[in-house]
Amino acid sequence: MHQAFKDETALVVFSGATDLAYLKWLKPGFRHCFVILKSHDRWISIDPLAHMTRVDLHDMPSGSDPVSLLTEQGLTVLKTQLREAELVPSAPMLCTCVEVVKRILGIQSWRIVTPWQLYRHLSAD
Question: Is 103 left (phi over 0), alpha (psi -120 to 50) or beta?
Answer without folding.
Answer: alpha
